[in-house]
Amino acid sequence: MNLEALRASDAAHHLHPFSDNKALGEKGTRILTRGEGVYVWDQDGNRLLDAFAGLWCVNIGYGRRELGEAARRQMDELAYYNSFFGCTTEPAVKLSAKLAELAPGDLDTVFFTNSGSEANDTILRLVRHFWAVQGRPEKFHFIGRHNGYHGSTVAGASLGGMAGMHKQGGLPIPGIHHINQPYWFGEGGEMSPEEFGLARARELEAKILELGPERVAAFIAEPLQGAAGVFIPPSTYWPEINRICRQYDVLLVADEVICGFGRTGQWFGSQTFGIEPDLMPIAKGLTSGYIPLGGVLMNQRVAGVLREQGGELAHGYTYSGHPVCCAVALENLRILQEERIVERCREDTGPYLAQRWTQLAEHPLVGEARICGMVGALELVPNKPSRTFFEDRGRVGGLCRDIALSNGLILRATWDAMLLSPPLVISRGEIDELIEKTWRTLDQTAAALRQG
Ligand code: PMP
Q1: Residue 430 to residue 437: CA distance in whole angstroms
Q2: Which of 29, 61, 229, 364 has the fewest Cβ atoms surrounding its Cβ within 10 A?
């Protein structure tokens, strides 16, 4: 099919996620055809530096043939078997053990899902079951955060705090509450980041006391808020959250779907921020996006209760522990470990990227350039140095994203924040190219705004 035929067919038969499908059908989708390292190519042959790693997920970069070979080997050997009815497969066994080795603290047990959303749906059920089998069924309520993102399934979207998502489908479901986010740039006012971090953490304590600690099952949050706009919490935030969760015996869920597998320069965001989670949903970087796979990692307390007192677990997916997905994940983790990709991010390319990225704050359009490991954002603002937003929020971000594309650079826009999350294998030379293209994009965006 030629390009026009492909686009017409797509418009007629394919409903795209998180898209205005009418507008997209009229504009025509971009069709990606190939990837290598940090680059992807589109149907017109344009080479694009993917500074967003697909959707925060292609940690080892595109085009690693070993993953395809691992899938091929496993498909030839045993393409599928389930992990129900007392069965399992060798890749699922080996991956569970590998994850237990990599995970922080005593998180040493995993339940496999296909995605991050399913991991969070699983958490809602496992955590309520955990309390119920200990004779505490009233410990049922979850607390999440406004603008948190935990997926698109019913529980995932309910735990998340995206108002636009709640509007579609009658969410959130009962028993889920939200507190404010630690977004200092947008909401910190006159407080220092440290004061603000503490204040926002203490909203959790207030909410727990309002609901009654005996009714609160868990608090869920991303180590840094990704989809909302890469909000990196002040240093005071997580230590206080740890304290509050321990004090009121509320389970702490760190959603590691973005942060996991090296994104912040440690294997998990929980290590970067000193979080002491009881459970961690994982996905994305687990397979570098080469094949769908997610999971819930849990500590010995949670796993122990579910094993010893949980009875038959009435939960699971046809593809929980899919052998091909697990084989691909094992190969991905082998590459991350043997090539010391996480260490390189932490010690070399991450600090270099941070140094170059924060220089972008000198641009007249940039109100803040923040970064943690290999994930960051630029806040585009009308009036430096005040922390104010454009009136028509989202327009300038969209414009900047489109200009970036015309410069061969993929950045994501959330409102007027430009988000960065490149493959972890990005080299210093590619970082220079990324920064040069971003600076040029900012100049062109500013010029377009001046022209109205
Ligand atoms: N949690 C977080 C923190 C995420 O960023 C995402 C996806 N962006 C999810 C959960 C949902 O994962 P998935 O899209 O694989 O269902």
Answers
A1: 10
A2: 364
Q: What ipTM does the predicted assembly reach?
A: 0.99
pLDDT tens, position by position, 90-119: 999 999 999 999 999 999 999 999 999 999
Ligand 1 pocket, residue 286 CB under 6 Å: no
Amino acid identity of 332? Answer: N
- What distance in angstroms lies between residue 308's CA and the mean position of ligand 1's atoms? 30
Burial annotation 344-359 (CB, 10 A radius, 16+ → b, else e): bbbeebbebbbebbbe
Cα(194)–Cα(348) distance, integer angstroms: 28
Q: Is the CB of 332 under 6 A from ligand 1?
A: no
Distance CA 411, CA 359 (A): 17
Domain 66-338 of CATH type 3.40.640.10 = yes
C-alpha of residue 116 to centroid of ligand 1, in Å: 5
Ligand 1 centroid, distance to 191 Cα (angstroms): 31
Q: Is a pLDDT exceeding 90 seen at residue 277?
A: yes
183 neighbors 226 (Cβ within 8 angstroms): no
pLDDT at 32: 97
Q: Percent of the chain scored above 90 by pLDDT?
A: 98
Ligand 1 touching residue 283 (CB < 6 A)? yes
Indicate which atom in ligand 1 lies nearest the CA of residue 151.
Answer: 11
Substitution candidate for ligand 1 out of 59, 149, 231 with most atoms within 8 A of CB = 149
Is 150 close to ligand 1, i.e. is its CB under 6 Å away? yes
In which element (H, E) is residue 112 found? strand 107-113
Pairing of strands 141-145, 216-221: parallel
CB of 52 shorter than 6 A to ligand 1: no
pLDDT score of 359 more than 90: yes
Residue 220 has what DSSP assignment?
Answer: E
User: How many Å is the maximal CA-CA distance in the chain?
Assistant: 67
Please provide the DSSP assignment of 319-341 as one string: TTT-HHHHHHHHHHHHHHHHTTH
The encoded tokens of residue 116 equal 């991050």
pLDDT score, position 240 = 98
Fold classification of 31-63+340-450 (topology level): Aspartate Aminotransferase, domain 1 (3.90.1150)
Domain boundaries, the chain: 31-63+340-450, 66-338
**What confidence tens digit (pLDDT) does each residue in 53-78 have?**
999 999 999 999 999 999 999 999 99
343: confidence class by pLDDT, cuts 50, 70, 90: very high
Average pLDDT, the chain: 97
What confidence tens digit (pLDDT) does each residue in 150-174 have? 999 999 999 999 999 999 999 999 9
- Residue 423 phi/psi, 5-degree rounding, is -55, 145
66-338 shares the fold of 31-63+340-450: no
